[in-house]
Amino acid sequence: MIVLTLPEVPGYRIVKVLGVVKGSTVRAKHIGKDILAGLRQIVGGEIKEYTEMLAEARAEAERRMVEEAEKLGANAIINVRYTTSSVMANAAEILAYGTAVLVEPMS
């Protein structure tokens, strides 16, 4: 599966637009990570526990988006975007979305 933030796939032409696809996951903070994050806020620096958690969440959201595109018969997803929103205290949704398309190489 080709996954791009571009509106087209270089070297390919779009044969068919299959529609919007999305994948999401909701993640909550772990109390242990909150304690470590609080300590890091005091001394400064990257909060690695949250960086790792959000990287895993983005990967899961993208995997779910790709799954949805595969079910439609797509071989590429264009205009991919990521967004996040708070759904409750200490929990956030990561959403990946884009346009599923069928592409073929240009001759």
Task: Indicate the low-confidence ranges by residue numbers.
Answer: none
| Spatial strand sequence of the major β-sheet | 1-3-4-2
Helical fraction: 25-40%
Instruction: Write down how many β-strands occur, each being a DSSP E stretch of 2 or more residues.
Output: 4
Structural class: alpha+beta
**CATH structural fold name:** Translation Initiation Factor IF3
Q: What is the second-level CATH architecture? A: 2-Layer Sandwich
| Ends apart, CA distance between termini | 20 Å
Structural domains: how many: 1
Report the top-level CATH class.
Alpha Beta
SSE map:
Layout: E1 2-3, E2 12-28, H1 31-43, H2 48-72, E3 76-88, E4 91-105
Parallel strand pairs: 1-3
Antiparallel strand pairs: 2-4, 3-4
What would a concise description of this structure say?
The protein is α+β, with helices and mostly antiparallel strands and 107 residues long. Helices cover 36% and strands 44% of the residues.
Describe the 3D structure.
The protein has 107 residues and is α+β, with helices and mostly antiparallel strands. The protein has one domain (2-105): Translation Initiation Factor IF3, CATH 3.30.110. The chain has 2 helices and 4 strands, in the order E-E-H-H-E-E. It has helices at 31-43, 48-72, and strands at residues 2-3, 12-28, 76-88, 91-105. Strands 1-3-4-2 form a 4-stranded mixed sheet. A hairpin with a 2-residue loop joins strand 3 (76-88) and strand 4 (91-105). The radius of gyration is 18 Å and the shape is elongated.
